[in-house]
Design goal:
Largest sheet: 15 strands, antiparallel
Helix content: under 10%
Structural class: mainly beta
Low-confidence stretches: 1-11, 19-61, 135-144
Order of helices and strands: EHEEEEEEEEHEEEEEEEE
CATH class: Mainly Beta
Number of strands: 17
Number of helices: 2
Distance between the termini: 33 Å
CATH topology: YmcC-like fold
């Protein structure tokens, strides 16, 4: 399957892209010789929801409709989640995700960081939900730092959130990226590829500012290889990172904690759900 879209996919890769561009700009110079429905009362962090639709794991109801039904990512127009991220390469920041449009075969997720807004398109299929762009917090954060990315995604394989996820399940997503990045009025060409390996570890209780949830714990191992070329000089940078996501049924992801390494520098960041409302 081949898909071509602006930017890349999913939060872990977005974070690593942030690290890449920060690291690339701070790296020592290279010599030229070197070669991302029915109306009901809103669900909030203090309310219990009973949502109509199919079940996927045990008797847990799955939020959403049709192909977009997913117990761990409730696709409902107007659904909103506010997060705070700390400890990462971009420093501390907060952002709000809102599903602004739902279609039979996809939806639009908009992210707001301060005055900056970015959108992320998703596809819904019988296999699950697939992010088609970077968008979201990583793209908005890069933009807030004066970095403009125009990256196309192609040869996307796999699924971001399968329609059914049970402890012990494993799945993979891969893609190629190419385009350009502009920072401080300088433009560099960028090409590369990324791979994400997902493992559903099991269920556990997790507490964040939005509340305490019984959540599915998913490990995401990310490998990203990017070549940035500026004035015939190419800087190859490889990233590896491991993220743990906690997904609460009919709420979405409530926490993410990750660590990565680039150019010999390690980082650890944590993102936690602050508030949420799901129509």
């Amino acid at each position: 399957m081949e898909q071509k879209n602006s930017y890349t996919l999913f939060t872990p890769i977005g974070v690593l892209l942030i690290v890449f561009f920060i690291a690339a700009c701070s790296a020592p110079p290279i010599s030229p010789t070197n070669p991302q429905s029915p109306a009901t009362a809103p669900i909030t962090a203090t309310e219990t929801a009973v949502l109509p639709t199919a079940t996927v794991q045990g008797d847990a109801p799955a939020a959403g409709q049709g192909l977009c039904t997913n117990v761990y990512y409730p696709v409902r127009q107007g659904a909103t989640w506010t997060y705070k991220s700390t400890g990462g390469p971009a420093g501390e920041y907060s952002f709000t995700d809102t599903i602004t449009s739902v279609r039979d075969d996809g939806f639009t997720l908009s992210t707001q960081i301060g005055d900056i807004s970015r959108s992320l398109e998703w596809n819904c299929t019988a296999e699950g939900l697939t992010a088609l762009q970077l968008g979201g917090a990583p793209a908005a954060m890069l933009n807030s730092q004066g970095i403009q990315m125009n990256l196309d995604v192609s040869n996307v394989t796999g699924t971001t959130f399968p329609s059914r996820i049970n402890p012990g399940d494993q799945w993979q997503q891969t893609m190629n990226v190419q385009g350009n990045v502009t920072m401080m009025n300088e433009q560099a060409e960028a090409t590369g590829n990324a791979q994400m390996n997902f493992s559903a570890i099991g269920n556990e209780s997790v507490t964040v500012p939005a509340g305490t949830f019984e959540a599915l714990k998913v490990q995401v191992d990310v490998t990203l290889n990017i070549n940035a070329t500026y004035q015939a000089v190419t800087l190859p940078v490889s990233f590896t990172g491991t993220y743990i996501y906690w997904f609460a049924p009919n709420v979405g992801w409530v926490k993410a904690s990750g660590n990565g390494n680039v150019l010999g520098n390690s980082f650890i960041d944590t993102t936690e759900l602050q508030t949420y409302s799901i129509p």
